[in-house]
Write a structure and sequence with these properties.
- The chain has 3 helices and 8 strands; from the N terminus they run αβββαββαβββ.
- By secondary structure, it is α+β, with helices and mostly antiparallel strands.
- The chain has one domain: Beta Barrel (Porin), CATH 2.40.160.20.
- It has an 8-stranded antiparallel β-barrel.
- Strand 6 and strand 7 form a beta hairpin.
- About 25% of the residues are buried.
């Protein structure tokens, strides 16, 4: 795991020790959250910064239903090892034939192709809350939704560009929409009756660009920001 991600998740866990012992006496019907978020995919060496927004309804003090949206941007380099075996074999054959025909310089080696990407996530579902402490609310949730990825490749030399065009087309751009699943949890630090600072981490799995990349991958999403609580008090329902 990346040092930055490990550090953030460690701090996230340690902050839980700041809880108080009095039970909460207000739980608003509605909650809205917005904040900074990152999306870390180590298998692609891709770290993306972005935004996360949530809106939900507390059905019971321990149960909420809500909708979640995120957008992230970042850049990396796509290396041959990230591609599936069929694409790797296709590249080896194309490069070998190009050298034999004098179209590719002898000794040419494909290393990495710079890429920029934007990722959107959409999810909805339940969240289970633990409200036994006045100062903090703990929560856990399943993570199930859709992920849309838009990636642009930026080859740095004519030979690499020709190879990339052969794989993704002349636009040098690919998009994909897939299902993700996983789980997550977090802590709300209740600084006032209607405002808290929320931190959350989710681990999700998905299989993106399956025709090019080498199988599914795991990603960690971390977010932090203010959460607003309003509406009828349902604490005793």
């Amino acid at each position: 795991m990346r040092p930055k991600t490990l550090f953030v998740l460690t701090v996230f866990v340690l902050l839980a020790s700041l809880s108080g012992f009095a039970q909460q006496d207000y739980v608003g019907r509605w909650e809205a959250y917005t904040g900074y978020s990152f999306f870390d995919t180590p298998s692609l060496n891709l770290f993306q910064n972005g935004f996360n927004g949530e809106f939900g309804a507390n059905i019971r003090p321990w149960l909420a239903l809500g909708f979640d949206f995120s957008v992230f941007q970042g850049s990396n380099s796509i290396t041959p090892g990230m591609l599936n075996s069929g694409v790797q074999q296709q590249l080896v054959q194309t490069i070998t034939e190009g050298m034999e025909a004098g179209l590719i310089p002898p000794g040419y080696r494909l290393t990495g192709v710079p890429s920029t990407s934007t990722t959107y996530t959409y999810s909805a579902g339940p969240q289970f809350n633990i409200r036994h402490f006045q100062q903090v609310t703990f929560f856990v949730r399943p993570a199930l939704g859709a992920l849309h990825e838009s990636a642009s490749l930026n080859p740095t030399d004519p030979v690499t560009k020709a190879l990339v065009v052969g794989l993704v087309g002349s636009s040098l751009h690919k998009t994909d929409t897939v299902v993700f699943y996983g789980f997550g949890g977090g802590i709300d630090f209740n600084i006032a009756q209607h405002v808290s600072i929320s931190t959350a981490a989710d681990l999700v799995h998905y299989d993106m660009f399956s025709g090019l990349l080498n199988g599914g991958r795991n990603t960690v999403r971390f977010s932090i920001g203010p959460k607003f609580h309003f509406g009828q008090n349902i604490m005793h329902k």
